[in-house]
Specification:
The complex is a heterodimer of chains A (about 110) and B (about 625).
Chain A lengths: L2 H7 L2 H21 L3 H25 L4 H32 L13
Chain B lengths: L6 H20 L1 H28 L4 E12 L2 E10 H24 L6 H20 L3 H19 L7 H31 L4 H8 L10 H16 L8 H4 L5 H10 L4 H8 L1 H5 L2 H22 L5 H21 L3 H28 L17 H15 L5 H16 L1 H26 L6 H6 L5 H16 L14 H10 L15 H25 L4 H9 L1 H8 L4 H49 L6 H20 L1
Antiparallel strand pairs in B: 1-2
The chains are: A mainly alpha (about 110), B mainly alpha (about 625).
Amino acid sequence: MTGMDAILHGGLQGYLVVALLLFAIGLAAVLLRRTLLMQFMGVELMLNAANVALLAFARYRGGDLQATVFYLFIIAVAACEAAVGLALIIGLYRHRDTTDSDRTASLKQ
Amino acid sequence: MNKYYWLIPILPLLGSVFNGILGRRAGKGAVTFVGLGTVLGSLVLAFSAFFAMKALPDHRLVLNFGEWMGVGSMSVPFGFVIDTLSGTMMLVVAGIGFLIHVYSVGYMHDDEGYGRFFSYMNLFVFFMLTLVLGSSLPLMFVGWEGVGLCSYLLIGYYFETDFAPDAGLKAFLMNRVGDLGVAIGMMVLFAAFGTLTVGDILLRAGHLAPEAGFGILTFATLMLFVGATGKSAQLPLYLWLPDAMAGPTPVSALIHAATMVTSGIYMICRLAPVFTLAPITMDVVAWVGAATALFAATIGLVQRDIKKVLAYSTVSQLGYMFLGLGASGFAAGFFHVFTHAWFKALLFLGAGSVIHAMHHEQDLFKMGGLKAKMPLTFWTMLAATLAIIGFPGTSGFASKDEILYLAYLKSPALWVIGVVAACCTAFYMLRLFTLAFLGEPRDHHAHDHAHESPASMTLPLVVLAVGSVLAVWLGWPKAFGGEFRIEEWLSSAVTYGQLHAAHGEHGSAQLPLILASVSTILGLGFAFFGYLTYRNGLAVAEARAAKFPVVHKVLLNKYYVDEGVELVILGPIRWFGNLLWKLFDVIIIDGVGVNLPGALARVFGDFTALFQTGRVRNYALSMALGAAVLLYVFLK
């Protein structure tokens, strides 16, 4: 079964492929972009990839409610974390006039 | 009263603590009150204890406060023993100690460190009394070390000068050499007798016969004698005492003349029955004593510093005491300790009075003509000088002649050495006396300002002068119809535990009289010679010195012993120390041991720091790679 088949026909593997792609895109954003905002979005993508995988496994195991509850909690915590992360980025921008992560390396010195 | 006698040493200790902690804040009045009051209290208690001991049939008062150290078969009591020997010594320490404290009130009046001075002095009295009264060798050793500490502190009292701290250090280090001997001697005695309590050692020694050759007791007593040479400044460990004169003059009088330096003699008297068992040691003691007596007396002939003359005189007189001990004259040796404590303390205090009046001028050649300015000092110094040269009727006459007589019985050669030393003593004492008090003043500026010292200084002088003469009452020699009663008085202590106390044979009746007359006449002759030489200033002496330039120079430089020690002992030690420092310490310890691991850590750190770019993306990449590797490993 090819990847495209998996997506078209449903089943666990299709979901996992989506999750993998999401994770890879997120990781690429974190590693390749220098703008903190973009890197942050990459992190969020990777988080959601994990969520997709989690729910896919839950479904595969026969609709485990615990996973759904867990997922809801993760979403809530991720929202908080997003708020904190954005606030930090804004704070950094106010101080440094930049959101370039390569230029905020002053702890190195 | 018995239950208060433990206060005898403790009172001065309390005084020391008070003066040491609060001395600066409490003011001079309080320091004087506490410093003198505690010593006086201890003196009063000492008298009470002395008479309590005297009233006992065996003259032996033992105070036991319990066990101090108990390990295996060793049990060391914590206690005091007051017998005729320690009782007499205790009175000397507390009595002369008190007089010198009184004197110090005047002498140290303008000194910044008044409280510190009295704190040290009180501490010294505490340790000295512990040494004297201790009923076991370890407790005596505590006192022995303690007086060494106080000696160090007081020699280095003027710590802002260059030489005083060095002199203190010298005294301390030289005493360490001797103290090692005492420690070894103590251990050997424990091995031999199985106890460290003085009384028990003597009781067990009483059953033994003298050792024929070099046995364990000879070794133990020789080691103890090494300690005595350190503490009592005998050859070869005497070098520290002349330098110890860097301390204030009352210190020289109390510690380096009257009490501490005699503790070596006291220790040997304390263990007299053990020393008697080791004839070889006794020979060594006698010959070292005689050699020191002569050696130091010749150096004293040419010294210019008034305190240095007295210091060499002390070394020489201590040599006499050891000569007496070595000739089995424990009573004679201790009697000389007793009389010497009076007249030598007086000589030092008199010298201090002169120095005080001359505004800290210690050079004899700049003094002169002080008789009219300082009559009390003059007359008391005269009494002390007569006593030390053995003028008939004074205390020095009695004690010195008894020692010389016993030395003659041991070996006539020892007697000859002793008499020659006595002649030197007579000469340099009259030289000192004449240069300081008689003739014309040689430094008019200092002379004009000279004045008699205050009452707190002259009063002790008078008391000591009376004592210097009257101490003869205790031991008028048998040769002159006396009873030498100190011998009988001390016999219960120095022959304690002996089954058959040896009675020295006393030769013919005329012999002591002849010997004493010869030595006295010779001594007085040399005294007169000394007076004649310096009566009209320095011209005669300088002319004579010019005739014997080599002898004069050697004596003036104290036989170059200091230089020799520097060359033979200190030089190699310093060289070896340098080697250890530069090779072992700098290269091996610092280099290989410390700096090398440091450098390695730094190199490694610099390497790993390359990975710390400070860029989030790099960290994220390494994290992702790490996660990928883990994933591969686990899922493979």
